[in-house]
């Protein structure tokens, strides 16, 4: 019996030595070359933005803040927010919604009243008809929100809208929802008869949407820009459908509807911005006192390494900046990262099991968000095709054969522009899944009415 016990003890000791050795090898093992390269992309700060920064104006959009005070208010809010402990720290203030100074000092410009008609939505159709059916009600609604619409119109003068707040899990975002009010204003202006002002307004907002996509460096900013672009392109096409094809367009429309030429750059910036936000959350929690959570408890620290966890996460964001994404975008195929996920049973996870579990928790569907930008680009290309078609000599009605002369720059290798017989619309396939507030069938196609197709 003694020999048996000694044998068991020796076996357990050997197992323990082997386990310690395996843990040590795993602990000393650094990230893979692919992970290091991806992490370097995320750790490099974005290049300085060029042109006028409009974030301060966007931040105070729904309040009556004098233009000369907007930057100062933004700086004060950043300072106030930076002093608030992270969620999870021992402070009541950390779990309170952050309210900016403008909300406390200045009158709000959003003034809802009983009986107000519904605002047009970016991802819904029929805004012109919706406004036309209730003109007196919309006149009162828009008059009450004239100052808000004026603030929103000022945003077209800015080149970018990069969020300067510290990237944290509770990072505040500007009141993007107020941007959508302009869509109703442009529709009302159009049906009231001032077509030039309506066209100029919707084209200016299209330009603002494009700069939100390219100049926000964040997932939420790019997605708001994508929705804003979709809504304004649809309204612009509806306006063209009710105008003769010879009707002149404001100069601002030429720049607003120029095709996107750097879609991968836009998607890459968006994904790197989201990656920096996620990794900043990991780093921020390192400063919090251990509170028993998976990533901060003393027991878990033996099996958690923030650097290795960040490196494990990085490739999923950096993929959108690589050659595989570039090839798919060049062919206008739905973006799809076919890279197999890293195994949790790998040597790297022996000493970082908690980090591997944390890194593998499902986050935002990056692929789906990238496809929404692909669809925004396709919709913009369709609008540019409509402008080309309205310049052609095709009689009173557009003919299907007119598309045969479409310039190569307006064609897609992956999804064809179609003009169905009996339907006065230009359509293209959609790659993104339908969104809750979007029109039925949005996941199947992107329809836009043809110029002049709704004339009597």
Give an account of the 3D structure.
Strands 1-2 form a two-stranded antiparallel sheet. Helix 9 packs antiparallel against helix 10. It has a domain at 55-264 and 399-449. The chain is globular. Helix content is 50%, strand content 2%. The protein has 18 helices and 2 strands. Residues 89-95, 289-296 and 438-443 have low confidence and may be disordered. Residues 437-456 are annotated as: Disordered. Residues 439-456 have a biased composition (Low complexity).
Low-pLDDT regions: 89-95, 289-296, 438-443
Biggest beta sheet summary: 2 strands, antiparallel
* DSSP summary: helix tally: 18
Give the topology string: H per helix, E per strand. Answer: HHHHHHHHHHHHHHHHHHEE
Order of strands in the sheet with the most strands? Answer: 1-2
């Amino acid at each position: 019996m003694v020999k048996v016990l000694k044998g068991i003890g020796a076996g357990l000791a050997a197992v323990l030595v082997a386990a310690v050795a395996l843990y040590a090898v795993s602990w000393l093992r650094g990230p893979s070359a692919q992970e290091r390269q991806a992490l370097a992309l995320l750790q490099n700060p974005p290049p300085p933005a060029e042109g006028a920064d409009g974030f301060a104006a966007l931040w105070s959009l729904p309040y009556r803040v004098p233009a000369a005070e907007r930057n100062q208010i933004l700086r004060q809010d950043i300072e106030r927010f930076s002093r608030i402990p992270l969620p999870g720290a021992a402070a009541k203030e950390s779990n309170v919604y952050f309210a900016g100074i403008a909300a406390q000092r200045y009158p709000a410009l959003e003034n809802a009243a009983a009986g107000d008609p519904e605002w047009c939505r970016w991802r819904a159709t029929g805004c012109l008809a919706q406004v036309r059916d209730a003109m007196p009600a919309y006149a009162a609604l828009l008059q009450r929100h004239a100052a808000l619409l004026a603030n929103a119109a000022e945003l077209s003068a800015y080149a970018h809208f990069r969020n300067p707040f510290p990237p944290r899990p509770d990072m505040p975002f500007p009141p993007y929802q107020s941007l959508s009010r302009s869509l109703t204003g442009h529709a009302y202006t159009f049906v009231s008869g001032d077509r030039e002002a309506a066209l100029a307004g919707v084209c200016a907002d299209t330009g603002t949407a494009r700069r939100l996509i390219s100049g926000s460096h964040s997932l939420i900013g790019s997605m708001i820009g994508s929705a804003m672009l979709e809504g304004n392109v649809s309204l612009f096409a509806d306006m063209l459908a009710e105008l003769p094809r010879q009707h002149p367009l404001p100069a601002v429309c030429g720049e607003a509807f120029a095709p996107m030429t750097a879609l991968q750059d836009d998607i890459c910036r968006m994904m790197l911005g989201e990656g920096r936000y996620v990794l900043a959350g990991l780093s921020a929690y390192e400063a919090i006192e251990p509170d028993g959570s998976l990533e901060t408890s003393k027991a878990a620290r033996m099996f958690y390494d923030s650097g290795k966890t960040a490196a494990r996460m990085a490739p999923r964001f950096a993929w959108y900046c690589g050659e595989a994404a570039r090839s798919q975008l060049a062919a206008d195929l739905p973006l799809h990262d076919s890279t197999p996920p890293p195994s949790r049973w790998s040597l790297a996870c022996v000493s970082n099991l908690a980090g591997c579990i944390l890194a593998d928790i499902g986050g935002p569907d990056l692929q789906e968000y990238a496809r929404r930008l692909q669809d925004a680009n396709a919709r913009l290309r369709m609008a540019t095709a409509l402008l080309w078609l309205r310049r052609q000599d095709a009689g009173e009605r557009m003919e299907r054969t007119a598309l045969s002369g479409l310039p190569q720059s307006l064609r897609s290798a992956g999804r064809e522009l179609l003009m169905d017989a009996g339907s006065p619309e230009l359509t293209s396939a959609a790659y993104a899944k339908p969104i809750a507030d979007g029109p039925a069938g949005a996941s199947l196609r992107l329809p836009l009415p043809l110029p002049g197709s709704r004339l009597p």
